[in-house]
Design brief:
CATH architecture of the largest domain: 3-Layer(aba) Sandwich
Helix content: 10-25%
Structural class: alpha+beta
Low-confidence stretches: 1-21
Number of helices: 8
Oligomer: single chain
Mean pLDDT: 89
């Protein structure tokens, strides 16, 4: 435990006044080390120019890596002078599906634009959560952490095999909860090394920047340059998201949620809940630093404080605050975002994950997560039947740098009353494989163009930057 005490002591010292140039360990890292104990901690490392990355690290950008290290190794790295900054890696969990009705597509099976290919000769990498099913098309599999329980992977793989029955499938499985961006990076690297031409991933994180410069966004761009098409689900959090500005018009030191409201109403159905708040104050390309800091305070219906998160950013620090509750009782709560800062206002983004029925007010715009925000990712939203408009839960753009996202949509039906963008993404991956079979010389950009030409118009679009213009019609081929 001495090594753990060292890292926690360092983090505490950093929070209480070290100069920016001396601060290496993130103020949030001590909390992550406490959760992990003395085991390896997944981290994101900003290396100084020319420094050698730790063994086993995955490079996601020049001088930026994702790695795992014990608290003692992190302390040694911080003291070595080779790291500019070390922060916790982002976390992922298996997306929670929404409830939906069994679609009746019998009247439309003849109108599908699906091509004649089956994906033969194309290798699809499925990067997903939970145990890998026994499907004959899966020719190689590897787990990146204990898979846990659940059928999310099985549903996604079943959709791919059904719609691209000739494709070769690779299976990279992640834990159903608390998978790290480091796990995802290692899994993606393995799929690429095994020859995947397409990678479909249904996970999303909301703990990083959403301007295409998050670690996994940069990794997606690197893999795209190698000829790999990355298909990313847009996420299911549109109805559990809010975004606004770091304003405090009435001087109560709380972020203005509306001109007359200083709190977000959260409805818990009872269970584990995570609240994540980020704000666009990352600084330049080097270690994050800025002028704004936010906290999270959760209050019950009577105004009593239930829980709070007050992690100071320090001289350097990610503009991220999280509050995790393992078993929040069912009921209605108020979430306040205490605000400290100066200078021009920045965008603030709030998302509630887990056992949350909804929040109020809701702002669906900018609710898309990483790595769907990557410039090279083909981000996939979901449409609902029979209107074929954007599903209410489907993550929406734009990105923080105002790029339109998602790029396409598909039906989000996953069987057994489940819907979500998790099940839309593999439909697009299967169609991409069918196109690659027919024209194997095409690269990711050309395949994206072909997919766009096959898409049907999304009806009743409310925003040009936040909803896709077209959706992929797989009706007549789906048998879930």
């Amino acid at each position: 435990m001495r090594k753990l005490a060292l890292i926690l002591g360092s983090a505490l010292a950093l929070q209480t006044g070290m100069q920016a140039e001396a601060q290496v360990l993130s103020p949030r890292l001590g909390l992550e080390a406490t959760r992990k104990g003395i085991g390896a901690v997944p981290v994101e490392i900003w290396l100084k120019p020319g420094a050698t990355p730790p063994p086993g690290a995955v490079e996601v950008a020049p001088d930026r890596v994702l790695a795992e290290a014990t608290p003692g190794a992190l302390e040694a790295l911080a003291q070595s002078g080779t790291a500019d900054y070390i922060a916790p890696a982002d976390t992922f969990s298996a997306p929670q599906p929404e409830a939906g009705e069994d679609p009746d597509d019998t009247a439309a099976k003849a109108v599908s634009l699906w091509p004649s290919g089956t994906g033969r000769g194309v290798t699809i990498g499925i990067l997903d959560f939970g145990p890998v099913p026994d499907l004959p098309a899966i020719t190689a599999r590897r787990s990146f952490g204990a898979p846990g329980h659940g059928d999310h992977f099985a549903r996604v793989a079943g959709i791919v095999q059904q719609l691209a029955p000739g494709a070769r499938l690779l299976a990279a499985s992640l834990p159903t909860s608390n998978a790290s961006a480091t796990d995802v990076a290692h899994a993606a690297q393995w799929l690429a090394d095994q020859g995947a031409r397409i990678i479909t991933f249904s996970g999303a994180t909301y703990l990083n920047r959403r301007d295409g410069l998050a670690p996994l966004d940069r990794l997606v761009d690197t893999l795209s340059a190698r000829g790999i098409l990355w298909i990313a689900a847009a996420g299911n959090e549109a109805q559990r998201s809010w975004t606004g500005w770091s304003d405090d018009s009435n001087g109560d030191h709380l972020t203005d949620i509306t001109p007359t409201q200083s709190a977000i109403t959260l409805r818990s159905r009872g269970g584990a809940v995570q609240i994540a708040v980020t704000w666009d104050d990352w600084g330049g390309q080097r270690a994050p630093q800025g002028a704004w800091d936010l906290d999270i305070v959760l209050r019950d219906a009577q105004g009593r404080e239930v829980a709070a998160a007050h992690t100071p950013r320090g001289a350097k620090g990610e503009p991220v605050e999280t509050l995790t509750l393992r078993d929040l009782p069912a009921g209605t709560y108020r979430v306040e975002l205490p605000l400290r800062g100066r200078g021009s206002a920045v965008r603030v983004r709030f998302v509630a994950l887990g056992a949350v029925d909804g929040i109020s007010p809701t702002v669906p715009g900018e609710s898309i997560g990483s790595p769907a925000t990557a410039r090279s990712a083909l981000a996939v939203g979901a449409v609902e039947q029979p209107s074929f408009s954007t599903a209410r839960y489907s993550g929406q753009g734009p990105t923080a740098d105002q790029r339109p996202k998602p790029d396409l949509a598909a039906i989000g039906w996953g069987g057994d009353g489940q819907v979500g963008t998790s099940y839309a993404a593999p439909r697009v991956a299967a169609l991409a494989a069918c196109l690659m079979e027919l024209q194997p010389e095409l690269g990711p950009v050309q395949i994206r163009d072909r997919l766009a030409k096959l898409a049907r118009p999304v009806s009743a679009r409310r925003t040009m930057l936040g909803e896709p213009s077209g959706w992929i019609d797989s009706r007549g081929h789906d048998h879930l």
